[in-house]
Every structure is written in C-alpha cells, then in structure tokens.
Amino acid sequence: DALNGPPAKDLPGRPDGDIIVYVSEVEPQLKVQNSGIAGAKALHYTNVPIGDVPGHQRGISFKGIGTALTNTTWITYTGQNTGASTKDVYVYVSDGHSHFMAAMRIRANGEVGLSNDLALGNFTAIGNIGSEVHTVVFTLSPSTLKYNVTIFKETGPAILAENKSMLTEDALNFNNPAHPMISFQHEAGASFGHTYAIGSVSITRKKPK
C-alpha cells in the first residue's frame, strides 16, 4: 500500500476473498505509514473529524472468507496505542453479519476492558497496555459461546481473560457461513488526535504458535 493513503480493500494472496471494509468518509482517518510494529508498514487509524457518518460506518473492519463456526477460530492482531486524547477506541469481533462475539475498549491511557453485554455500556477492566506494542489474540468458540483474550506486551506478563461469554447468547443467531471479522472504531466526539496503529491482522482456524 502507498504511504499516507488508506489501505487497499481487496487483499492479495490466498485464501481469496479476505477484504478490508470502510466507507470513503472514513479515509481521512486511515493512513499507511512506515513502522516497525509488525513489518515495514502499519495502518495508522487516527481520530480526526469525519463529519456526520452513521455509527456502524465510522470504523474499519478486517473480514475473513466464509466459514462454518463449528471449529475454533483465532483472530490475532498487533497494534500500538498512541496520541493524547480523552476518547477511546473500540475493537469488535463478530460473525461479519452484525452478530457480536466480543467487544473490547482501549482507553487513551491504555486501559483495556471487555464488554459484559450487547448494550456496550458495561466494561470490565482486564489490564493496561500503555503505549507499548502489543499482540492481541482472540480465541473464539462460537459453538460453546465462549472466548478467550490474550494480550502480549513488550514488558511484563501477558494479560489474560479466559472463558468469557460471547455477547450473542444463541449460537443459532450466527450467520452460516460466517465471515469472521474484527472491527476498530474510535469513540465519537470532539476530542481528536488519538492514534491506534495496526501492524498486522490474522483470521485463521489454525492455532497460532
């Protein structure tokens, strides 16, 4: 991808069909930059004004190919939380069809919390990543409606939350086939400047090493 512009939506290589989803109005928030987070480049997702964009379209999503949810799925990404702001960034995991599995909130000061319900108004703190580069692993078992989250930081022990209940309470509500998806969205409001850098994203049914 070219520097200082948004990422390509169609991803090269196999498997064919993985895509990045965002509307054109969000492009001012998306800039590919040189980075050492996870490879030569990273996507800097910065909270800058974008006007009156509907809430569900205010972010960027990484969407996998169609798959059955009978087996465990792992969604892994590497990121970094930077920029002074009072606003948060939210990370949503879903079936790619508006059915949430998990929701994570990352505050500007690095505090990480997991949502306890679909209303997304009640979060439980599980640790703090500060401004360190970190790798987040969601281990998803939709058939049992459970998930784990592991966050590896540059310093200190990993943050671990296990056997958490998915936000969707009936496995029959998940789309079949599903398109496992992870989405990032800045909290709306007048406080700008918060950047969440995304270095890599992986969606797979093969357990990470």
Q: What do you see in this structure?
A:
Strands 1-4-13-6-7-8-9 form a 7-stranded antiparallel sheet, with no helix packed on it. A 7-stranded antiparallel sheet has the order 2-3-14-5-10-11-12, with no helix packed on it. The chain has 209 residues and is mainly beta. It is globular and about 40 Å long. The two termini are 27 Å apart. It is built from no helices and 14 strands.
Order of helices and strands: EEEEEEEEEEEEEE
| Largest sheet geometry | 7 strands, antiparallel
Which regions contain 5 or more consecutive residues with pLDDT less than 50? none
Mean pLDDT score: 92
Structural class computed from helices and strand pairing: mainly beta
Query: How large is the count of helical segments?
Result: 0
By DSSP, the count of extended strands is: 14
Percentage of residues in strands: 35-45%
What characteristic shape results from the CA principal axes?
globular
Q: Termini distance? A: 27 Å
- What quaternary form is this? single chain
Helix percent band:
under 10%
Strand order of the largest sheet: 1-4-13-6-7-8-9
In angstroms, what is the radius of gyration?
Answer: 16 Å
Tag the structure with descriptive keywords.
7-stranded antiparallel beta sheet; 14 strands; mainly beta; 209 residues; 44% strand; globular
Describe how the helices and strands are arranged:
Blueprint: E1 19-21, E2 30-34, E3 41-46, E4 60-63, E5 73-82, E6 89-94, E7 100-106, E8 111-115, E9 123-128, E10 134-141, E11 146-153, E12 159-165, E13 181-186, E14 195-204
Antiparallel strand pairs: 1-4, 2-3, 3-14, 4-13, 5-10, 5-14, 6-7, 6-13, 7-8, 8-9, 10-11, 11-12
